[in-house]
């Protein structure tokens, strides 16, 4: 569904946006008007919801910016959330960044290498392993 469709399909003077917080809608509108949304996306939960919103309503410029934003801010605490988000919005570049991040932790034996792998889906773990074994 495109963002414009939401308004074209509205009845009366209200537009209903199910499944998203009002703050998320406001951040999307702010982005459209070139307002700074950096503070909103510092919170991983807000940022992921905005990515889901951008995907659902086909925000062609916001979605890639959020994907790039996430790729640069991966941590041991948020990588599981980012993998799930990448899966939901079919973002291969973000998923690959998560794979690279986890591989880096495991290859470098950093303190984060004791990451809880149970948070990842089997396909993700398989891809991590396959890529780790490539020469």
TrEMBL record:
It comes from the Eukaryota. Coiled coil: none annotated. Residues 3-72 form the BTB domain. It holds the Pfam family BTB. This is BTB domain-containing protein. InterPro entries: BTB/POZ_dom, SKP1/BTB/POZ_sf.
């Amino acid at each position: 569904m495109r963002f414009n469709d939401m308004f074209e399909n509205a009845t009366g003077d209200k537009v209903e946006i199910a499944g998203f917080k009002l703050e998320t809608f406001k951040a999307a509108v702010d982005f459209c008007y070139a307002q700074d949304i950096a503070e909103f996306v510092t919170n991983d939960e807000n940022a992921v919801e905005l990515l889901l919103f951008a995907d659902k309503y086909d925000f062609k410029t916001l979605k890639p910016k959020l994907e790039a934003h996430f790729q640069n801010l991966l941590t041991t605490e948020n990588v599981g959330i980012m993998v799930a988000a990448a899966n939901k919005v079919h973002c291969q570049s973000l998923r690959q960044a998560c794979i690279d991040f986890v591989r880096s932790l495991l290859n470098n034996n950093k303190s984060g290498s004791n990451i809880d792998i149970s948070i990842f889906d089997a396909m993700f773990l398989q891809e991590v392993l396959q890529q780790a074994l490539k020469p």
